[in-house]
Structure formats: C-alpha cells, structure tokens
Design a protein that fits this description.
Chain B: It holds the Pfam family OpuAC. Chain B: This is ABC transporter substrate-binding protein. Chain B: Keywords: Signal. Chain B: It comes from Streptomyces tricolor. Chain A: It is a multi-pass membrane protein. The complex is a heterodimer of chains A (642) and B (316). Chain A is built from 27 helices and no strands. Chain A is mainly α. Chain A folds into two domains: 255 residues, MetI-like (MetI-like fold, Orthogonal Bundle); 223 residues, MetI-like (MetI-like fold). Chain A is globular. By secondary structure, chain B is α/β, with parallel strands linked by helices. Chain B folds into two domains: 147 residues, Periplasmic binding protein-like II (D-Maltodextrin-Binding Protein, domain 2, 3-Layer(aba) Sandwich); 131 residues, D-Maltodextrin-Binding Protein, domain 2, CATH 3.40.190.100. Helices cover 40% and strands 20% of the residues of chain B. Chain B has 13 helices and nine strands. In chain B, α2 links the parallel β1 and β2. The longest helix of chain B has 16 residues. Classes of the chains: A mainly alpha (642), B alpha/beta (316). Chains A and B meet through α3, α12, α15, α16 and α26 of A and α1, β2, α3 and α7 of B.
Chain lengths: 642, 316
C-alpha cells in the first residue's frame, strides 16, 4: 500500500511555545467547566438529552420495502442502478468462467509479466493455481467479478471527483474534509444505508464497496493534478496550449504516479470491502469465510482466507509495479497477451477442462482443524506456568477490558466530553476539538452512550497494546538494518490483508468474546504503526544525531533524548493511524463476540432491524470522527487507506 | 466540444434513469444460471440443522437432478427479503416470522409456502440435566430467582446469566425476563458456535448454566439438557413482542420458495416442495457435520447413500 511520508520535525522552540499555549487552553476549558458544573450531574448520558430515532427509522425501512416495487424513484432510478450493477457483475463473471481456470491464470500471469517481469508473473500464476487447488475457484471468480466492477466504478467516480477538486479550488475545499472523514470510517458503517435502499445482495455490496473505495482515488487524483510542476505548466502555456490541452497533455501525464497509486489503494480497499460485504450478501470468498466463522470451522475459513490474501498480494504487486514507472525491458505486447489467453482458453474448452478439475483440490480444512483442535486442547488452557491462550484472553478481559470499560462508564458524561476536548485541543486546533466534542455528544444524543463506551474501551486497550508493540518494533527496525530487512516482507503482506481475514486465527486461539476482537485489531494495526515509527526515526536529522554522538551520548540517550523527541510528529501520526485501524477491526469483532456497537450492527443486519443497526452505524461514524480528531496532529498527511 | 459533452450527458442520463422502469425486486443473483447450467440458489442459516437441510438438498440437486447449486449465508429475516427479490430461490427451515409471512406471502405474493419440512421445532430455556437432578425444582420458572447466584458470571453484572446465542434467532428472552420479573440478564454469545463452545466448556466442568436452546439440536446428544417450564403457550400470547410472558410454541418448521421459482423452477422447485424428512434424519446429518467435522457435502453423501428409501420419494 501507500507509503506514508513523514516530514522531519520542526524547530526545537516549538515545544516550549506549545506548552504555554497548552496551559492556556487547559485553563480556558477548566473555566468553562467550572461555570457549567452546577448545571450538570454525573453518571452516564442523561436520558432527557437523547432523541430516539427508532420509530422514524423503522417507518423509513418499512416504507422502502413496501414501495420498492412501485415508487418511481426505485423504478426509474435505483432499479436501473441495481440492474446495471447486476448486469456488469454477471458479464464479468461469465467472461471469467468462459476463459476457464487456464485462461484466467494465463491472462493474470501475462499481465503481471508485462508490468513487473518474470518473477511477478510466476508468482501470479502460482497464486491463481493455489486458489483453484484450495477448491475455491468459483468463489474466487465471484469475488474477482465483483471487484472488477466495483474498482472500475470507484475509479470512474474517484477520478471524476479528483479532477474536479484538482481544477477548482472551491470544490477542493468542499470535498477535502468529506474525503478525509470517509477514510477514517470503519467499513462496517457503510453497509447499512445501502442495505436499507437496495436490500441484501450483490448491488448493495458493490455500491458499498464503491463508496468505500472511491475516496483514495479522488484524493490522489486531486493531489497529483495540484502537484504538477509549475514550470512545466508554464512552458506548456507559453506554447499556446488551451486549458484542455494543458490538462490532457501536461497535467494528467505528470500526475501518472499519483493516479496509479490511487488505483492501487482503491483496489486494496475494494478487496477489503468486497470481503466484508459478504455480511450483506456479496457471495464469493467473503461468504465462505463468513459461513465458516459462523460454525467456528477454522480450517474452512482458512481455505477461503488464503485466496483472499493471494488475490490481495497479487493485485497490490501488479498495480504497484505498473505505478513504478521505471523503464522495463520489452516483454509482451497486449495483442499477443490477449491472443495467448484466447488460445489457452480455447484449448481448455476443447479439452473440456473449463472448471477446475475436481481431483486437483487439496483439502486443507481437515488437517488445519486437527491442528486447531490440538492447539485448543494443548495451548488453549492449562499450559503450565504461562497459562493457555484462553487464560490470557480471560485475564485480559477481567484485568484490563472490564476495568477500562467500567471506568469509562463510571466517569460522568460531561467529563468524558471534557477529556475529549482537552486532548483534541492540545494536539490539534480548536476546530478539531469542536468536531470531536460534537461527535461524542452526538453519540449520547443517539442514545448509545454505553455500547459506544464499551467499544471505546476495547479500542483504547487495543491501541495501548499496539503502540507498545509497534513502537518497540519500530525502534528496533530503525536502529538495525537487519531487523528492518527481515520485517519488510512480513509488514508488506500484513498490510495488504483484508480486515476479515484476521478474525479467523484469533477465534482459534482466543475463543469468542472481546479479547479476540482486540487481538485481531492489534495485529491489523501493528504494521502501519511499526512502519511509521521506523520511518520517522530514520528521518530524524542526521546532524542532530551526529552532534549528540559527539557529545558522548550513549545509544539509549540518543534514542530517548534526540530521536524520539525529534520524531514526535511521526509518532503522533502513528498513534492516529493505529487508532483508526484498530477501530475498524474492533467493530468487525462484533462477529466474534466483541459485543457493543459491532454487535448492534450485526444484529441490525441479521434481524432486518435497521433502526438498531443504523443508529449503531451512526455512532461508529461519530466514534471514528472523535478518535481521529483527538489524535490528529494539526496538519494532514496521506494515510494508509483502511 | 460543448455539444459532445451535452450529448454524452444526455446519453448517460437516459441510460441511467430510464428507457423504462426497472423493478429491482425482480433481480436474480448475478452468479445464477451461469453458462446455461440450471442453478438453484439456496439460503443457509447459521445453525447446523439448516446446514443439513441445505447440504442434502444440494447433494441431490447436483448429483441426481443435474443442477448447479449456489448457497448464500443469510440470516432468517434478511433471507425473507432476499427470497422475495429472487436473490435466493428457497428458504428450507423457517422458525416462524408472522410479520414477514403476512407482508410477502399474503400481501405482495412474491413468496409462496413450500410446505412442512417435517421437523417440529421448539425453543425454550434449558438447564443441564445434571443440574436438574441436583435441584429438581429448578425446572420451574417461579423458582429460578432462588438460584440466581448459581448462574452469575462476569458478563451478567450481579444477576443470573441467561445465555442467548446468535443475534439472528427468534427470541423473546429480554421481554420474558422483564415481564416475568426475573433477576436475570440476557447475555448474547454472539453466534451459535460461541454458545455451543461455552455450553461444552460448562458441561466439561459440570458447572450450572441457563441457556436459550432449541430442539431439534444435535447438542442434546452430547450435553443432555432439561427444559425449564415457562408459563404455558396459548395462541396469540406472543402477539405483542414487548408483552410476551409465555413459553415458545411448538412450530412445524416451514419451507418457503420464491414465487417465480415455484412456478417456473421445474424439477428443482418440485423437488424442494416434496423435500420432507424427520428430526432423526436431520440430526444424523447434523451430528456428522458438527461432531465428526465432516464436510457438509460428504455428510450429505453418506446420508443419501444410506437412506435411498427416504429421498427417492422426493424426486419429481
């Protein structure tokens, strides 16, 4: 995925100035509270400040179901959208099936060869064959078909928006906060509104995916267009090119790198979402994982999870290679690639081997389940001295999660708001603080204060663990090239895996409950935190380090007194990323017993009770906004899309 | 240039908004009927009994009738919606959803009844039999409050824990606890799998527990459980979900088919209408899937091979 750029830290006078301003801010907040305090009472959010949306939402949902086959909005607009999606997915799916497994594999390999050379091609072919060997060929093709349509739509929408924002300042100002916000929202929050309108099924899944995956394309397109070298543009202008010629011949080609990075991010996010959308009937690989998770069949979940990971890695590498832009040795032209594919597909058809041969599948579910059973029997509980994984999960729940949750719920509601305000204001501006407080207050008004704080407690616990592990690993990677080299491929793979996949192993290890949700979140967020930390530490001004060294500072002193303070902004960014990524997975944790908001969304989807689900979804949005603003350093930087 | 833009915009608008109406409630899954093969899409619910129905139906449809079967994991209520829109063709085990039935079967006529599954379902509150032997009076709801302390857990907050399973199941438990004024807290395990894991762990250590459970269910063979008597069920006593204060009914489980599929689904529709087996048959397959961890298709094959007299009658 995208690498995150970390600017080196500012001058050293900043901290003191900040400290004074910080004291002033805190004083002001304290004053406001002191004035308001007599009016407030403690405990959780008061009932008279809540607005129940259950009735109107239930009515809306009933109205949609009753009018879906008669109202003109559905007949003449949404129906066509839905039809177009189904038609497109079906067309791609049929094309993939017609090409057969051999055709698809060859086409994939040739495309990879064209962009990235022979090694990538071999890897791609192996990945496709592995999908077939796991008995997942048809689900893989279903997911791929859905992905192709969703990615094309996302790219079209994203590029259009990005073009607008790149050319018009006003549009840019209007779009940027929206896109920024959309990128921090957990995927789960996008599902319910589309289900309300389109019902369970592929159209809803594709549209949710598009909404989720289009923002990075828009952002990066705008960024690329705006970042074009002004001298080049001037030169083109002086040659008398019209606006349109300038756009087509200079600005867009110059933004090629950003455009392809945008494509890469869009693909990765679309894959992640296409898998999660199984919850709303997307079918394909995600559905297999979902089915397997429902019966805690880890082996079957893994058999469907591996193709997802392979697909993710292949798509990421191929698009990254395409965006690399380095000159490649001539490999193969498109006409030849297509011709070879058609030939292979025809050959397979004549041989009657379009479907993946039944005898060639490898049943990994059974051995994996046996291994898991062994693990649960031996590691799960009662291991001498260190205890079993279930014991850890139990202790983590009773010693950390419960106290944090109870503590948060014990806090008077206004003090939670105050804490949010103080944190956000200290790190950001009054504007971010205001957004954060309003978002938190909205949660209270929606009447989901308690489940939201439950989710928040899980997020806090997971973030704490992530930061401890992430900073430690990041420091190690920054200080030793060997560690860095060893970590890089691991981080690469982990960063490309869709969120859903992380749920499988944690269920096997930690059973069901809040602890596995937290564990999955930690594993998911860790790579980004490690990466940003290491990068930030490495970019610390060498001169500062050198002078510290010449003053006789030991390695530890250098780290604590020079590198870490100077990399403060990178560390803050790591915290921000960690929080956003953790939230996304903690929410999905509702599927493995995480409870709270994630469970409410799952419940809303399962019972068709959209009122519960939508309110929980809105609370997730608010929580995401709040957490992002509270940890957001003053200015924004590109982030890992998740 | 401008003219091209306008033409393009008009073309897009026409394409998008309408050369006629499009009824999105009549759209099949894009993955159905690929390459001319006849496809049936079956909805699977998360409990093993439903998996068994689907596994056997799928096996016979694929191997005896030459269909291709897609299965989609959908919970019951969304399955009704998907069924009405034709995104799935059949729902093989429904535990009673009067609201949905009224809306889709009676009013919209997009779903038709597919007949009895042959299995009678019953939901209730259960305690393990070893506990019922120790405290014989625990099986009456009036005495439950005496034993609250037995059922206390970290998640139940000082009250007794009544364990519920998946969010998707038919349940009145929250209302029941409230209306019967019991000192209990309903704790959702999150999924049936989680609930079963938990029950097995309790049973291994012979600990007391009170759980929402239902029959037919294969787990009874592994962990014998005794039902707690709730106030008896009378017709209509569960009409208002907030005021329920009676036990759950005995429900003959029903099959439902998409109306179009039922009319024009050929042999597959005829077969699914005739599909009818017993609790014992279902449990046999369920045990193979859940306890022996057989792949559902292998379990179905074993059952089909050994019970030709049963399924031969289903063939059209």
């Amino acid at each position: 995925m995208a690498t995150v750029t970390v600017p080196t830290s500012r001058t050293r006078t900043a901290p003191r100035l900040l400290k004074n301003r910080a004291a002033g801010k805190l004083l002001l907040l304290g004053l406001v509270t002191a004035v308001l305090l007599p009016l407030l009472h403690g405990g959780p959010w008061p009932d008279d400040l809540t607005v129940s949306l259950d009735k109107p939402l239930a009515t809306a949902s009933d109205w949609v179901i009753d009018n879906r086959d008669s109202h003109p909005v559905f007949l003449y607009f949404l129906g066509h959208v839905s039809n177009a999606v189904i038609w497109a997915v079906r067309a791609v799916y049929l094309a993939l099936l017609t090409a057969g497994w051999a055709g698809v594999t060859v086409l994939g390999a040739l495309t990879a060869w064209r962009f990235g050379g022979a090694r990538l091609a071999a890897g791609t072919a192996a990945a496709f064959l592995a999908c077939g060997a796991l008995g997942m060929w048809v689900p893989t093709m279903q997911t791929l078909a859905l992905m192709v349509v969703a990615v094309l739509a996302s790219v079209a929408v994203g590029a259009l928006l990005g073009l607008g924002a790149g050319l018009s300042d006003r549009l840019d100002r209007a779009l940027r906060p929206v896109l920024d916000t959309m990128q921090v929202l957990p995927a789960f929050a996008y599902l319910l509104p589309v289900v309300l309108v389109f019902g369970i099924g592929v159209p809803a899944a594709v549209l949710a995916t598009v909404v989720y995956a289009a923002p990075p394309m828009a952002r990066l397109t705008a960024l690329g267009l705006r970042g074009a070298d002004p001298e080049v543009l001037e030169a083109v202008e002086s040659l008398g090119a019209t606006r349109r010629q300038r756009l087509l011949t200079a600005r867009i080609p110059l933004a090629r790198k950003e455009l392809l990075l945008g494509l890469n991010q869009t693909i990765m996010m679309a894959l992640s979402m296409a898998v999660i959308a199984a919850v709303i009937g997307a079918g394909g690989l995600g559905d297999r994982v979902y089915q397997a998770l429902a019966s805690v069949d880890v082996g079957a979940a893994l058999a469907a999870g591996i193709p997802i990971v392979l697909l993710a890695v292949v798509l990421d590498r191929v698009t990254a290679a395409a965006g690399d832009g380095t000159t490649r040795p001539r490999t193969i032209g498109w006409p030849y690639a297509v011709a070879v594919t058609v030939a292979v597909a025809l050959a397979a058809r004549l041989l009657g081997a379009l479907d993946w041969p039944a005898g060639w599948t490898l049943g990994i579910a059974e051995p994996v389940n046996r291994a898991v059973d062994w693990m649960t029997a031996h590691l799960y509980s009662g291991v001498p001295v260190i205890g079993g994984t279930a014991d850890w999960a139990g202790h983590f729940t009773t010693w950390i999660l419960d106290p944090v949750r109870d503590g948060l719920l014990w806090l008077p509601w206004w003090s939670v708001l105050l804490l949010v305000a103080a944190l956000a204001w200290l790190i950001g501006t009054w504007r971010t603080a205001l957004t954060a407080v309003l978002a938190m207050a909205a949660i209270g008004v929606l009447g989901v204060w308690e489940p939201s704080l439950d989710t928040l407690s899980q997020v806090l616990a997971a973030v704490a663990v992530t930061l401890v592990l992430g900073f430690a690993t990041g420091v190690a990677a920054a200080r030793s090239d060997r560690v860095d080299r060893a970590l890089r491929p691991v981080l690469d793979v982990f960063q490309t895996m869709p969120q859903f996949v992380y749920l499988i192993p944690v269920v096997a290890l930690f059973g069901v409950g809040r602890a596995p949700a937290v564990a999955a979140a930690v594993v998911y967020a860790l790579p980004a935190v490690v990466r940003i930390t290491a990068q930030g530490l490495r970019q610390v001004d060498q001169a500062a380090l050198e002078s510290a060294r010449s003053l006789g500072a030991t390695g530890r002193q250098q780290l604590w007194q020079v590198q870490l303070p100077l990399a403060r902004r990178a560390l803050l960014l790591a915290v921000n990323q960690g929080v956003v990524l953790v939230l996304a997975v903690v929410i999905i944790g509702g599927l493995v017993g995480g409870g709270a908001l994630g469970y409410d969304v799952a419940f809303g989807l399962a019972q068709g009770d959209l009122a519960t689900g939508l309110v929980a979804g809105a609370a997730i949005v608010c929580l995401g906004l709040m957490l992002d603003r509270v940890t957001q350093p003053t200015d924004r930087r590109p982030r890992k899309g998740a | 240039m401008r003219r091209t833009t306008i033409t393009a915009a008009v073309a897009v608008l026409t394409l998008a908004t309408g050369c006629g109406s499009a009824d999105m409630t009549k759209q099949a899954s894009p993955f159905a009927n690929a390459r001319g093969s006849k496809t049936v899409t079956l909805s699977v619910q998360s409990w093993v009994g439903a998996q068994s129905n689907v596994a056997v139906a799928q096996y016979i449809l694929e191997h005896k009738l030459g269909y291709r079967v897609d299965t989609v994991q959908v919970d019951e209520v969304p399955a009704w919606d998907a069924l009405s829109q034709g995104r799935v063709d059949a729902l093989l085990e429904d535990w009673g959803h009067p609201d949905q039935e009224k809306r889709y079967v009676t009013e919209k006529k997009t779903i038709t009844r597919g007949g009895d599954l042959g299995v009678t379902g019953h939901i209730g509150w259960f305690v393990p039999t070893y506990l019922a032997k120790q405290h014989p009076d625990i099986t009456d709801w009036r005495n439950l409050d005496k034993y609250t302390s037995l059922f206390r857990t970290p998640e139940s907050g000082g009250k007794g824990q009544l364990m519920d399973g998946s969010p998707s199941y038919v349940t009145n438990d929250k209302a029941l606890v409230k209306n019967l004024k019991l000192d209990y807290q309903v704790v959702f395990a999150g999924s049936e799998a989680a609930q079963i894991t938990q029950i097995k762990q309790f049973a291994k250590e012979k600990k007391p527990f009170l759980t929402y459970w239902y029959s037919p269910q294969w787990l009874f063979e592994k962990v014998p459980m005794t039902e707690v008597k709730l106030p008896p069920y009378k017709e209509g006593c569960d009409a208002d979900p907030a005021k329920v204060a009676c036990s759950y009914p005995h429900t003959p489980l029903q099959k439902y088919l998409n109306a179009d599929f039922a009319r024009s689904g050929g042999e597959a529709a005829a077969f699914l209408k005739k599909f009818r087996w017993t609790t014992e048959d279902q449990n046999e397959v369920s045990l193979m899937i859940a306890e022996q961890k057989l792949d559902p298709q292998e379990a179905a094959k074993k059952w089909v091979d050994s019970h030709p007299d049963v399924w031969k009658k289903w063939l059209p």
